[in-house]
Amino acid sequence: MMDAMIPHAALDVARIREDFPILRQTVRGKKLIYLDSAASAQKPRVVIEAMRNAMETQYANVHRGLHWMSERTTDAYEAARDAVAALMNADRAEIVFTGNSTGAINLLAHSYGRGMMRPGQAVVISGMEHHSNIVPWQMLRDDRGIELRVAPITDAGELDMAAFEALLADGKVGLVAITHMSNVLGTYTPAERIVRIAHAHGAKVLLDGSQAIVHRRVDVRALDCDFYVWTGHKLYGPTGIGVLYGKRDLLDAMPPFMGGGEMISSVSYERSTWAEVPHKFEAGTPAILEGIGLKAAIDYVQAIGYEAIAAHEQTLTDHALARLSPIEGLRIVGQAQDRGGVVSFTLEGAHAHDVATLLDRQGIAVRAGHHCAEPLMRRFGIDSTARASFGVYTTTEEIDTLADTLARVREFFA
Amino acid sequence: MSDDFADLRDLYQETILDHGRHPRHGHRLASFDATAKGDNPMCGDRVQVFVKYAPDGAIAETGFEARGCAISVASADLMAEVIAGRTPDDTRALFAAFRELARTGACPDCADAALERLQPLAGVHEYPSRVKCATLPWHALIAALDGTQEASSE
């Protein structure tokens, strides 16, 4: 997707850091080094101001008011849908707003899983899914007699493609639901290949892009995936808003998930009819301010450019692997060829929580634990890892500080 | 030892590092009268506690198997040490006092020698997310004493 050998328009990290007010904070008397962007990214000033500005100057409910404020707010909120559609190369009617990725997957498990699949069919997930892409399918299985199959991963943390294809051989698989980038291993899955293979066996494909879309341009037409979900707060936007992309014909055919206002065409006590997509799937007052904030985040990312972002994060990831790997007793979990800015590791003699506490004392924020991926932890025979993850504002110097501190953490517990 | 971590000595005192690395009671008892598991679903820490009673009903011996951080292992080990010879009721009272110590850093009844022994764990009160690491083995212990199978730190 990108070639690290070709120099890209360099990303001016120092200038970007100026855009994120929180990076001026100190933590426990030290300069904040935020290496937990994969859990949630920090917010640029343009996002903060877009939301505040909306509240201060043009706020009302959307899609219903016949007054100036409501019309302006509706325009701003629907402009967010246009921004998402342009970001993903989709049609605006194919963009459904949800609360987050989890909300989007649960919507699919209901409207596609319960609405369109039949008992005896199967869903295939992979061995490196977040709990949010496991549990909704387990609930579907238990509710509807739909089998759940798990495609194994290799020791390097890549999808075992032969085993994956074998799981589809009997033609019973109705849906493949797989991450586009692992939140633990950093692995990019070969999405185009997965889609080709699944389609050849009659299965639809959902890609969980919660991590991937932060780091690389996602073109749903080029991928030819049937569904793609992601969440705003990891893409420098606010919490509380997520995205479900679905091919128009599928969204049209799917029954609604939640009933209520906004999602209807007409209502009587005898029967109700549904609004057109995407509104059919958006019951209730939506996350208006969050949508406005999300558009500002997308504009911000687009202005930097995915090519520059991808190149910057490749540099950071390569630097992190080079600096962390030589640390005695440190084991990188996940050695995929194609990987992004998420590095998980264990340190011999020190539990991940203790590592995180010691790093925190130096102002370094990492995540420690099972990362909502317990089956994946078991696959590698561990309970937890520490994880450093990077964003547009991360610098190689911050990674150097992480590496130097980790070497001392090891001494501390030796 | 780096000086940069000097202020972490309040949390990781030598007693904790020592018992975290080399727990004296970190094993399943060959025979036991009660057992229960403790689980912190937020972080994945797990502990199973085994209790053997003396003929008079007091706790004769405690062992544990734990997968967790230095603080949770050290806490389990110190717990096993201080509850030997105590009655279940006395142990419950001690846990109430210890929980207070872990949450606030203050020792409500320092006259008890057992609490003095547990004092190195008081440093967790400054790290709210780590308090559960220290109390998880106790939750499992109380579940074992109560005859329930599982405890959660939640």
- Compute the separation of the termini of chain A in Å: 42 Å
Largest interface, Cβ cutoff 8 Å:
A-B, 23 and 23 residues
Tell me the overall shape of chain A: globular
Low-confidence stretches of chain A: 1-8
Q: How many extended strands of chain A?
A: 17
- How large is the count of helical segments of chain B? 5
Please describe the biggest sheet of chain A, giving its number of strands, its sense, and whether it closes into a barrel. Answer: 7 strands, mixed
Q: Biggest sheet of chain A: strands side by side, in what order?
A: 4-10-9-8-7-5-6
Strand content of chain B: 15-25%
Largest sheet of chain B: 4 strands, mixed
Radius of gyration of chain B: 15 Å
> What percent of residues of chain A adopt helix (DSSP H or I)?
40-55%
N- and C-termini, Cα separation of chain B:
35 Å
Account of the protein in words:
The complex is a heterodimer of chains A (414) and B (154). With 414 residues, chain A is an alpha/beta fold. Chain A is built from 15 helices and 17 strands. In chain A, helix 4 runs parallel beside helix 5 and helix 12 runs parallel beside helix 15 (396-413). In chain A, helix 5 links the parallel strand 5 (122-126) and strand 6. Chain A is 40% helix and 17% strand. Chain B is an alpha+beta fold and 154 residues long. Chain B contains 5 helices and 4 strands; from the N terminus they run αβββααααβ. The radius of gyration of chain B is 15 Å and the shape is globular. Chain B starts with 13 loop residues before the first helix and ends with a strand. The model of chain B has no long low-confidence stretch (mean pLDDT 89). Classes of the chains: A alpha/beta (414), B alpha+beta (154). At the A-B interface, helix 13 and helix 15 of A face loops of B.
